[in-house]
Amino acid sequence: MCAQLSRSRAVLLLEVAQLYWEEGLAQEAIASRLGYSRPTVSRMLAQARRTGIVTVTVSHPIQRLMALERALAQAYGLTEARVAEAPPQGSDEEARAWEHGAQEGGAPGGISPAVARSAGELLLEYCGPRSVIAVSNGRAVGAVVHHLPERTWPHSTAVAMLGAAGDSLQLEDGPDICRGLALRLGGHYRSLPVPLVFGSLRSAQAVREEDQVLTTLELAGRSDVALTGIGSVGESTSPLLRRWMTLGVSQECRDKGVVAHLCGHHLNASGQHVGTSLCDRTVCLDPERLLGIPMVIGVAAGRGKLGAIRAALAGGYLSGLVTDEPTARGLIAAAQRDRPQGGSRAQDEPPGPRRRRRGGAGDGDRRRRPPARRTERG
User: Fold this and answer.
1) Which of 130, 139, 317, 345 has its CA 20 to 30 A from that of 351?
2) In Å, what is the CA distance from 316 to each residue of 138, 153, 222, 258?
3) Which pTM does this prediction carry?
């Protein structure tokens, strides 16, 4: 439509538009400067928009992230997907914390603060004043708890899904995370005051049959929502597990095709649970019980975690995933590569199976229904 304007009119409209939108002058000031009335300036601004001299673009980085979230959820059959911006290297203190895997003041690293905050926001959307929240261990979950907004939910309960590693790594071990989450929510907690890994299968089996362990893991299996990290197996093995990843265990994992570690259990690339000598000696929630929790939120990021995340997704263990932009793009690209040649997956199931709901003994109707999203703020 600009072609219908004379050059002089187009120049005038451009000048008025620049004074108003770029320099921020009020219409009265523009009218005084150019010798027109304010209503005339108003009509000029309207004409500038109508003829395309001025265009309006609504844009924010979150728009790009939301598109990634939709693509990620569709590709893997997720109920929820949250993608946070990855801070550029060296841009600020937050970026340096992400780059070096640690945060100032001893807060846990492993994921960026932006990812941790996004995971915390999603967690609270599925929690309420009386919720039972199951948690794993590790740096990622510790970071989420560290950044979680406080609530006053005295009837909420945080419950551990694993035993205690016993290390001094702040907010990475199960008891610290459980206690920290309860403090954030103002509620109670139930940790597992037993070692994460025992020296023998017999010892681990005996401890699993103790009343306190049974009741705690039973509560974790009935939780409303679970938050878990996703560990890779190999060079990026979690510091909490490295002392148990002996040469023999490492070789066993390689022989069995293990690529991921989730809540004390090993998974292969297809998401199948792989029994190993380390898993046999670990005190943790059974993988079938994990599958029955209505909302399981996985939080992980980084190139080294792509295979592990895909394994957890393929196994149907996650109904929600929180990660950063580069990791999300990598996951989406991997899903696209897996599509059959010459066909579209638009009407097909995602690469990984959709999350399975538990329907076994002891499950009431509440366990078969997906949870209503709660947005209560205490």
Assistant:
1) 139
2) 21, 30, 18, 16
3) 0.77
The angle that helices 325-337 and 61-76 make with each other, rounded to 10 degrees, is: 40
Q: Which among 331, 359, 102, 343 has a CA at the least distance from the CA of 239? A: 102
pLDDT tens digits, one per residue of 225-253 = 999 999 998 765 666 666 788 788 889 99
End-to-end CA, the chain: 54
- Output b/e per residue, 308-332; b: 16+ Cβ within 10 A: bbbbbbbbbbbbbbbbbbebbebbb
Domains and CATH numbers, the chain: 2-50 (1.10.10.10), 61-368 (3.40.50.1360)
The angle that helices 113-125 and 93-100 make with each other, rounded to 10 degrees, is: 90
What is the sign, positive or negative, of the torsion defined by CA atoms of 139, 144, 146, 151? negative
Both structure tokens of 273: 């649970």
What span, in angstroms and rounded, lies between the C-alpha atoms of 1 and 70? 36
Burial of 215 (0-12, 13-18, 19+ CB in 10 A): exposed
pLDDT in tens, 320-338: 999 999 999 999 999 999 8
- Quick one: tokens of 374? 């709660």
Separation between Cα atoms, residue 71 and residue 79, nearest integer Å:
12
Beta-bridged to residue 197, according to DSSP, are 282
According to DSSP, the β-strands at 231-232 and 258-262 are antiparallel
Structure tokens, 299: 């939080």
Per DSSP, which regions of 161-234 are E strands? 188-190, 225-229, 231-232
Q: How far apart are CA 195 and CA 179, in angstroms?
A: 17
Amino acid at residue number 352: G
Using DSSP's 3-state secondary structure scheme, residue 299 falls into: strand
Helix axes 27-34, 38-50, angle to 10 degrees: 100
